[in-house]
Structure formats: structure tokens, C-alpha cells
Amino acid sequence: MIDQISGTHSTPSSGVLTVVAAPASDHDEGLDLKGLVDYLSARTGIPINLHQCKDYKEAITSLVSGTAQIGWLGPFAYKEAASQDAGIEAFAVGVPRGKKTPNYHSLFIVRQESEINLLVDVRHSSIALGDDYSASGFEVPKRELAEVGIPIETEANFKEIVRVDNHDEAIRAMIEGRVDVAPVSSINLEELVASGKVDPADFKIIHQSSDISGAPLVYTHGMAPDLIEQIKTLVLDAHNHINVGGYGGLLERYVDPVISQQNFLESYIKAQWGWRSYAVIATFLAVVGATVVDLEIDFAQLITDTFKYLTDVVGRMMPPDFSKFDALALSMLETIEIALLGTLLAIILSIPVGLFSARNLAPNYFVFIIARTITVFFRAIPEFIMAMILVIAIGFGAMPAVIALGFHTMGFLAKFYAEAIEQINDGPVQALKASGASRTQVLAFAIVPQIMPSFVGNNLYIFDRNIRMATMLGIVGAGGIGYELQSAFRMFEYQRVSAIIALIFATIFVIDMISSYIRSKVA
Predict the structure, then answer these.
(1) How much is the pTM?
(2) Domains of the chain by start residue, with CATH
(3) Cα dihedral angle (450, 454, 455, 461), rounded to 10 degrees?
(4) What's the Rg (C-alpha) of the chain?
(5) How far, in Å, CA of 198 to CA of 202, rounded?
(6) Residue 470 and residue 332 in contact, taking contact as beta carbons nearer than 8 Å
(7) Which of 182, 220, 184 lies closest to 90, judged by CA?
(8) CA separation for the pair 128, 112 (Å, rounded)
């Protein structure tokens, strides 16, 4: 971190302004601010000195201390400077020539012939890292490497860490073979390629970060407000009068940081509507329309008949009859017990099937296909049909319902587990494998901790679902509250039916509240 330096800002008594620039490049074309500075000096009538700093810390310190009034900083360096509460504010961001936004990327590059092809392959290689306050040369690469289990704080992860002053030096170090890989700014790399200083055949990009917001010009609030406003207006309008330069050489223009931030946020939002979207909607509507015609559904009659008969039935169900509440409560408890045992059976069966159903964990393709076939088979057969068969095979009671629920929902849980495992961060897995961990250790320490919230959430969801399905299975002779509901319907005891429905709702509501609490504790 930069040490805080106290002091008040003001325009120097000599009337000379100082502009500092962080060292993003080591040649004039890479960070060309001279033309813009000369333009500002001519239009304001104030002499302006341009000072190229040796590192980001010098640039930040100059602005924080008040020895400089304007500066160019990278996005991370600006964040650090602004955190000093020193009255530093961004007022313009440069848009590179030929681009629509100031956003850029951190690119991991290696020599064309390198065997490094993925970010995880960077482990045990030599790497060039930039200034600690460089967004694309240090901060973003640090985050990207940590996400694949290669924290730069652990030097043993690399053959060598070479610190460089700027992106240009990092690119040269990679091309000349002094390092195996270099994370650099896309702006610097594109500028060097466009100027002919770097041949695209000499390198390949193995990883590109998400968008990084543009590097801003900043000012200190110590300057007179009218001068601040004048400089900002001149910079934003400069492209109409001169060839404006900045980070990456010639720029299209400078834009307000508000617009830059909007562009940055929009880069994460893909266009939601296009011809494909409309085609999908049209196809969906056509299918729905054809289905309605094929089933001969008359919506007008459906609405009128439903209103007429539903009003009659609801009238007969009021008020609910809780005269035999004790018996209903015992039946509801039996339903919960059926659901609980069915869920436990599903969990026990689904763990091994789910593990082998994950592409990244199955020992081979044959085992993967067998496991996936099992999950599809038991999901395809409704528990209602399973229960009917089991009632005939082993008789009435809770056991057919438990087995039917267990095997059917095992298919769902195994699928949920497999999908959760396939979406885990592979970094910890690769890190443990590289350190010689066994398959069991990788599972216990890299996979299980990542899928545990999903595991708990899915199990609670299946338990909630099984309570509802256990109610339905009672209709085919599996006992519980479903049997009581069927009996009440057969005897036309509609007030008792409404009491049973109210009891089922209350039970599901309480269980849902408990499940939500448990999920919040493991999320």
C-alpha cells in the first residue's frame, strides 16, 4: 500500500502545473501525452510540465502529496490513490484508435513454440510480473492465477518470478526467452504489433481476462474549480482540434469516466434481443398453438366451467373439519417419515452414481455411460408407477412408498451432484494432483468443500418434494396422509378434505422455513 501523505493541494505559486504519468510503456508512442499536454498549456495559458514516473508509487505519491496536480494512472493505481482520501478524481478516459470503448484486457502470452497452452500450465514456469499497482500486469493476473490454484504469493508455484517495470519490458522478456510467460496489457501488445515492433508469429495468447475498465486521467481538488472544469472540457473536446494521444498511442477521443464505467458494465451484459431471440419465441408460440389445437382446448369453456364448478366445490369444503385432528396429525407424521426414509435412501444411492456421472471424475467413459444410464432410467419412471408395482409385489404400507421415492429421486440427486462436480473450480484439484495427492484426498479436500452447499440445498429440496409426493403415493395404498385424503374424497367429506389440505400446507411451510434456515448457514 502507498503510505498516506498529508497536505493540502493548491496550484503552485509559480502558476506551473505538473502532470505525472505512470510507467505503462517504455517508449513515447506507448503512452503519448505530450501533444495533449501542449494543447492544454496553449489553451489555458498555463505552463504544464509532463513528468514520466519511474513507477506507479511515484505517480500516486506525487498526486497525494500535491506536487502534481494532474496525472495518468491505471485503474488499480487510481483506486489506490483515491482510497487515500486525498481529493483525487478521474475526469477523462482515453478510447484507443479503432475501438468503441476504453476497456482492455490482461493477456497471458507465451512463445509460439511453448508447450504452455492453458493458464493451469503456468505452474512451475518462469513469469514476468509488473508493478504491484499495475492492473493488467499484476493485480488482475494475481486474481486469475489464484482462481486456478496458483497463488503468486507461493513462490514454489513458479520456476522464477521476474519483476519488470512495464508491459513492454515484460513482452520483450517473453520473446527473448528470459521468461516463459508474461501477463501484459492488451493495449501495449496491440500497439507494439501495429507499430511493427513485435511480430505476431513470435507469441500466442493462452488466456484473456475479463474486461478491465479504462485507465483514467485524474486531477487533485486543490486546483481552482474553474480551472478543473476548463481542463476537463478541453480534454473531452481535444479530438476535435488535435490528434489526441495517450495510452496505446493515438486515441479516438477522451470520454467522461461515467461513460467509461457504463461501457465497462455493458461489456458484461450480452445483447438479449436479436433475430435468434425472436425466432425462438415465434417457434415456441407456434408449438404451443399447435398443442392447444391438437388437444382441442376451449379456453372460454374452460374458464366458465371452472368458475362454476370450483365455486361449488369450495363452498362445500368450508369450513374445514378438524374434529379428527389427532388422527390426521399421525397420518401426516407417517407421510413425513416416508419422505425422510425415501430421501435418505436416495442420498445413499446417489452419491456413488453421482460421482461416476461427472465427466471430470469418472474413471473412464464406460463407467460414465453406465452411471448416466442409471440416473436417466430412474428419473424416467415416475414414483407413482413404481409404487403401484411395489404395492402389488410386496403389499400395502409405507415400504413401497419409501422404495419408490428413494429410487426415483436418486436419479435426480445423482444428476444434481454430477452437474455440481462438473462446474467446480479445477484449480484446487490440479494443485492437489500436482502435489501428489491421492484420488480420495482430491475428492475430500478439493471437490467436497466446493459442492457441499449445493449438496445440502439439493437434499433439502428433494426432501421437501418427497413429502408432497409421499402424499400422492398414499392414494395407491402406501399409507400416510394421502390415504386419508383419498378416503375423504371417496366419502364426499369435503370439509375434511379442506382440513387435510390445510394440514399439508402448514407442514410444507414449516419444513420450507427450516430448510431455508439450514441453507443460509451452509451457503
Answers:
(1) 0.55
(2) 17-101+214-266 (3.40.190.10), 106-208 (3.40.190.10), 271-315 (no CATH), 318-522 (1.10.3720.10)
(3) 170
(4) 34
(5) 8
(6) no
(7) 220
(8) 17
Cβ neighbours of residue 265 closer than 8 Å, sequence gap 6 or more: none
User: Starting from the edge strand earliest in sequence, which strands make up the sheet with 70-72, in order?
Assistant: 48-52, 17-21, 70-72, 216-220, 88-96, 249-255, 245-246
Number of helices (H) and strands (E) in the chain: give both, helices first.
Answer: 19, 12
Task: Give yes or no for a cis peptide into 319 (omega within 30° of 0).
Answer: yes
Q: Cβ(220)–Cβ(195) under 8 Å?
A: no
* pLDDT tens, position by position, 51-70: 999 989 999 999 988 899 99
CB count within 10 Å of CB 208 equals 13
CA distance 470 to 336: 8
User: C-alpha angle with apex 496: 494 to 500, nearest 5 degrees?
Assistant: 115
* Count of C-beta atoms within a 10 Å radius of residue 460: 19
> For residue 344, what is its C-alpha cell?
435418505
- Over residues 269-320, the pLDDT tens digits come to 555 566 787 898 999 999 999 998 888 888 877 777 777 777 777 788 888 8
3-class SS letters over 363-395: CCHHHHHHHHHHHHHHHHCCHHHHHHHHHHHHC
The C-alpha cell at 306 is 371452472
Digit-coded pLDDT (tens) for 170-187:
999 999 999 999 999 999
- Please write the tens of the pLDDT for every residue from 114-130: 999 999 999 999 999 99
**DSSP 3-state of 107:** strand
Three-state DSSP at 492 gives coil
Supply φ then ψ for residue 204, to 5 degrees: -140, 150
What confidence category does residue 481 fall into, taking pLDDT thresholds of 50, 70 and 90? confident
Confidence band, pLDDT 50/70/90 cuts, at residue 266: low
- pLDDT given for residue 93 in this prediction: 92
Q: How far apart are the first and last CA of the chain?
A: 32
Q: Give the pLDDT score at 468.
A: 82
Q: Which three cell numbers stand for residue 178?
A: 528470459
Chain centroid to Cα 32, Å, comes to: 36
Beta bridge partners of 184: 107
DSSP, res 198 = S
Cβ 455 vs Cβ 417: under 8 Å = yes
From residue 358, alpha-carbon distances to 67, 363, 438 in Å are 60, 10, 18
Q: Which residue has the higher pLDDT, 86 or 229?
A: 229
Greatest distance between any 2 Cα atoms in the chain = 101
Contacts of 113 (CB under 8 A, 6+ apart): none
Angle at 246 between CA 243 and CA 250, to 5 degrees: 40
DSSP-derived letter for residue 81 is H
Give the residue from 116, 73, 108 showing the smallest Cα distance to 94: 73
Evaluate the CA torsion angle 243, 247, 252, 257 in order and state its sign: negative
